[in-house]
Amino acid sequence: MTPLGLGDTTDLIFGRIDFITTLHAPALEERLAEEGIGARVARGDDVPNGLLRAERDSAVVTVPAFVREQVQVELMKLDALTSTVDWFVDDVARRGATGTQVDLFYEDEAAVWQPSR
Fold it and tell me: Residue 64 and residue 20: Cα distance in Å, rounded?
C-alpha cells in the first residue's frame, strides 16, 4: 500500500503535476545574519555569477550558482545551507584567505544517483 492512490502516483511519475519553488532572498539573508554572517543573495544580473556572498570579519565565501538549484529543485533545507555556509566561513577564517577555491562534489557521484543494492 502506498500513501497515494494509483492515479496520483501516475501523475507524479509522468509529470502531470507541476510545482514551483521560490527562494525568499531577504529571509535567507536574515537567517545567515542570525549566525553572525553578513550575506548578500544575488539578484538580477548577478544571478548567474553565484547564489550569495557571505562574510564574517575578514573571511569571505562566494556560494556558487548551482547551489540555488539544490535549494529550489532538490529542496535542500535552508538549515543545511546555513550550516554549510557557516562552516566554510569559519574554515576560511581558520586557514586564512589563500586565494584558493573550494568545490563541493561527491567523490563517486555516479554511486550517489544509483539505487543501493
Answer: 21
Eight-class DSSP state of 2: -
Q: Tell me which H or E stretch contains 25.
A: helix 25-33
Give the residue numbers spanning the domain of 52: 22-97
* Domains: count for the chain: 1
The three-state secondary structure class of 52 is strand
Strands 38-41 and 59-63 turn out to be: unpaired
**pLDDT per residue over 11-47, tens digit each?**
777 776 677 788 999 999 999 999 999 999 999 999 9
> Which one-letter amino acid corresponds to residue 31?
R
Q: How far is CA 42 from the centre of its chain?
A: 13
User: pLDDT tens digits for 100-111?
Assistant: 555 555 566 566
Q: Position 45: which residue type?
A: D
pTM: 0.69
Neighbours of 28 (CB within 10 A): 19
Residue with cell 545567515: 32
